[in-house]
Specification:
The chain has 178 residues and is an alpha+beta fold. It has helices at 13-38, 40-48, 55-65, 91-103, 112-121, 129-139, 141-145, 147-150; strands at residues 68-71, 74-78, 84-87, 124-125. The chain has a 4-stranded mixed β-sheet. Helix 4 (91-103) packs across helix 5. 19% of the residues are buried. The structure holds zinc ion (ZN). Zinc ion is lined by residues 102-103, 109, 137, 140, 142-143.
Length: 178
């Protein structure tokens, strides 16, 4: 008596599953390292007076660091318009901010560029903010479904609030983890 069904066996499904998650895990590690590194040299220089061994890198770090300062354990950057921006160093925190500003309570599903501008106006900085905002909007389910209606620029409200006014600590969206 042979079965006509070609049922999944323990040999195939779990293997596919494992391969996918190990690739994802590797990508996550790379992203975390990249993000951690963006401010590491500046941090080490300002905090411990330690510069990279490479002379070029050391010079670059010293020149870059002139725009940064550490205050109460946090890194801040002076923008070209001399506004002080809080530097966001972890991918998780970046995702929380993107989520809050795009589809959270004060989000308006604006397009990537407008989202990035909004985040800057709220006082946050990280070097890949623009690219990350674009990517975030591209991945937003609601935006993809209603792209014609939603991608209007955000109203320019000039509404300044302190980063600490936002409740960003308790949020975590599993969809944002990659
Ligand atoms: Zn959206």
């Amino acid at each position: 008596m042979g079965s006509a069904f070609n049922e999944p066996t323990l040999d195939n499904i779990p293997i596919i599953h494992l391969m996918t998650s190990s690739i994802e895990a590797k990508e996550k590690v790379q992203i975390i390292e990249e993000v951690y590194n963006w401010s590491l040299d500046i941090w080490n220089y300002l905090k411990y007076d330690r510069l990279p061994d490479d002379k070029m890198e050391a010079r670059k770090t010293r020149s870059k660091a002139s725009r940064y300062t550490i205050f109460e354990g946090k890194l801040y950057r002076r923008s070209t318009s001399r506004v002080i921006l809080r530097c966001i160093r972890s991918k998780e925190h970046m995702n929380q901010i993107l989520q809050e500003m795009h589809d959270g309570e004060c989000g308006n599903h604006s397009g990537g560029r407008s989202l990035a501008n909004r985040i800057s106006r709220q006082g946050y900085y990280w070097p890949t903010l623009r690219e990350d905002a674009m990517r975030y909007v591209q991945r937003c389910d609601a935006c993809q479904r209603h792209s014609v209606f939603l991608h209007h620029p955000a109203p320019n409200t000039h509404h300044y609030i302190q980063p600490s006014d936002l409740n960003l600590t308790s949020r975590s969206d599993p969809d944002l983890q990659n």
